[in-house]
Amino acid sequence: MSNLFDYLFWRGDLTFKQSEFNNVDALILSRLSYLNFDGIISPSFSESVPLKKASDIFFSQDDKLIEEKVIMEEDMKLLEKLSSSNRFKDMEIFGYVNEIDEVTEKQFSVITINIDNKRYFVSFRGTDNTLIGWKEDFNMTFMDVVPAQVSAKKYLNSLSNYCNVPLIVGGHSKGGNLAIYSSAFCKPQLKNNIEKIYNFDGPGFNRSILNKEEYLNITSKINNYIPQSSIVGLLLQNEGDNNIIHSTQEGIMQHDLYSWDVNHNDFIYLEKTTKDSLFVKKTLKDWLANTDQIQREEFFDTIHNVLSDTNADSINSLNENWYKTAIKILSSYKNLDDSAKEMISEGLGELMNSAKKNFNIYMPNFLNFSNNKK
Q1: What does the pLDDT read at residue 315?
Q2: Which end of the chain, N or C, is more open, meaning fewer C-beta atoms within 10 Å of its C-beta?
């Protein structure tokens, strides 16, 4: 099985004149925005930095600081490989924005990349490891528009004042959602410059967004990619077909794009998603249908407040000392008033009821399979 790093070994020496921009290139650039370029790349659209130089500055930092800035270890390896690749090292990067706002519950980051002096790739970062980032994802279940989507649209509109070249817009996870939303609701003249929209396993939208004319006008440009057991990419709803990529991981871990199989200059595709993916999709869909927006908002707000009481600001912080974290979570839960406890219990109960209803439909052979393995 081959992945992004094998692709860079095969194609990294080829410029875009020698080999056209492809779907794997789009995935790589979508992941590039996950790197923290604070103090390295300017938010200005008129000040760019070659990727090689950005990489040199990044790795000149203190090792501990680098570790704190990296979400996945593979991201460091990716940046190293890109910076030594003829295909990517001379790309100019600019317009870096990285915003975390606990008050508005916004996590937003983006960079723009000059691919070949003919096209720009706007790469929206997906959910990072901050609690605020995850909370904003949950907010999508009860809000038509979240703050990061507003910022994404504003970013594209600002970019239109600087350039008039063809654009490719993309992102992984929430970044894919931001790519679609910003492309749909940006200025009409900019929308005409958008050639393609890449959504790599990103969540969808509420029906109120899908019915808007602005969204319907860009559906032909949307390219959805999900792994075979996708969960995140099947949340809420998106228009258009899904291109199903084979992943070497299992379950939710397939969201890791480094596990996606590559064959030369494209992915290895499958015909359909797995039954467990359909099971999770239908379970969550039923749960959303059986709870109203106020219930979902109160449920996720309470969960977030309980986690915040641990004084952790990231998923990594929660995991660093899981035993003490678990004690703090239990203590915080005990201190909730009865109505808050009841609301959490009802929310989880409704989710379990949805799961039970769909288990026999989508996973009828699971128990037999488990017994046969013993």
Answers
A1: 47
A2: C
